Amino acid sequence: MSKSNKLTVQKIDISVSSVNNEDYFSLTDIAKYRNRSEPFSIINNWMRGRTTLAFLGLWEVLNNVAFKPLEFERFKSEAGHNYFVLSPQKWIEKTNAIGIISKSGRYGGTFAHKDIAFEFASWISPEFKLYLITEFQRLKNDEMVRLNLNWNFQRTLAKVNYRIHTDAIKEKIIPLELTKEQSAVIYANEADLLNVALFGKTAQQWKNENRNLEGNIRDYATLEQLVVLSNMESMNSVMIHQGLAQKAIAFSFRPSASSLSAICRVDNSASAVNNNSASVIWSRRFCFSRAFISLCVFTVIPVHS
């Protein structure tokens, strides 16, 4: 991606900058979807939440060797209280965070790595997040045509929260004395928890039904399913860190599976992402919005003073 691009999502212009070859979205622009005059207040309110802080801290632990965990723990202990206020500048200054950056000047504002920006967009509006991802996909596809890059948006999306999810499993669930083979079983069980909720079957069940296909069940997921999966991996990692048992987590995800099945009737055997028919695209967007709003309603946890 070039140094700076703009996406237009539901009449909101959103700046996207390249930082160390990573895409950073303007949270200031995204927040204007809710409050055009004071977008910073929307960002500050989002950052006050316990779930938000848990996600931000975990992202930094996985991606930033210079992150200050002690300062993070202090913020986390205060999160949720009426007196607690946290701005992007304070977060960056105290924890040495890199996932969120603050720029001054005419083209400044608060920017965040795409992993974090998608989480913020989901908190703002699940529907808005879907349109944002769709427009980002279009931008990447256009760039791929121009630069002839072999870039696969779906696989990139599938990896957005994959490492956060597996690291949570490694840290909180897998005992140190287990072998690699035993650990692999635990990883597979946790992955299948999400597979069953989203696809209605385990990876092995899908493999048994599709012996002629290469790859795994997630390789044949649609864009809609991968967006939902990314969100579920994010929430599952937070619940694992909170110590929830697998049965409790499965119960939380169970309504999501039935909602997706009833609303979208998605065919898992092939992806419809490359279908360029305008009518199909708009019908998918409508289906996508309804399904994702139903799926994610339990994850959107705004904090009230």
UniProtKB/TrEMBL annotation:
InterPro entries: KilA/APSES_HTH, KilA_N. Signal peptide: none annotated. Residues 3-139 form the KilA-N domain. Pfam families: KilA-N. PROSITE patterns: KILA_N. This is KilA-N domain-containing protein. It comes from Pedobacter nyackensis.
